[in-house]
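>> Question from a student workshop board

For tomorrow's exercise we were told to take the sequence and the ligand below, predict the bound structure, and bring the output to class. My setup keeps failing. Could a helper post the expected result so I can at least see what it should look like? The ligand is pyridoxal-5'-phosphate.
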Amino acid sequence: MEVAAQLAEIRERVGSAARRAGRAPEEVEVMVVSKTFPAEVVREAVDAGQVMFGENKIQEALGKIPLLPSTLRWHLIGHMQRNKVRKALPAFEAIHSIDSVKLANYADGIASELGLSPRVYLQVNIGEEESKHGFSGEELDRALEALLQLERLEVTGLMCLPPAESDPRDSRRWFAALRALRDRLEARGGVPLPGLSMGMSGDFEIAIEEGATIVRVGSAVFGNRKSNKREV
Ligand SMILES: *Cc1c(COP(=O)(O)O)cnc(C)c1O
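>> Workshop helper replied:
Here is what the output should look like for this input. Compare the format with yours to find the bug.
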């Protein structure tokens, strides 16, 4: 199927999932994950009206962004290495992968130098997997206050990349857990954390039912990736 047709179908399904959950479809943003796909393929989605794109590798994104319209909104969804923060911050509208207090502090300092106020999501290792980056719930409980006091980073919410489940219905509990953690942190911190970045090609409808405000959809738009090694 064509990219435009896939995208139309996904928007349709996003709308239905939102309505099913008693939410307005506009409450859910669709990020199209363009990692591994070249600019000319991304352009097909742009031509179909897509504006927000996600990339997981800074180097790859920095090569692609100048080849595409400057009106696009790029989000970083993979781990941000310290030595690339200075290049990443000006390029991305939001960083979904703030995964430690150290990185947050460092990025805050660079943002201050650059005069930027980046929107960030705190990445939660919701399944507490060895192989994945992210805060545990307990770590966030301890670190939240400090993270909210950072001068430049605007903490908008939480992001997760839950354990891979063979049946997408089994992902529901992870999404519900992220939302519950968010609710708890909001109550404790006394600040709104409206953003929930969760759900991918195989399970975005379930994520929306559990409160996702932004879903990250790649292969359902562009087809399978040749190399789909995730950098998380
Ligand atoms: C690759 C990736 C996605 C998109 O995955 P699909 O299954 O292709 O939709 C979403 N989020 C992150 C963090 C990713 O690395």
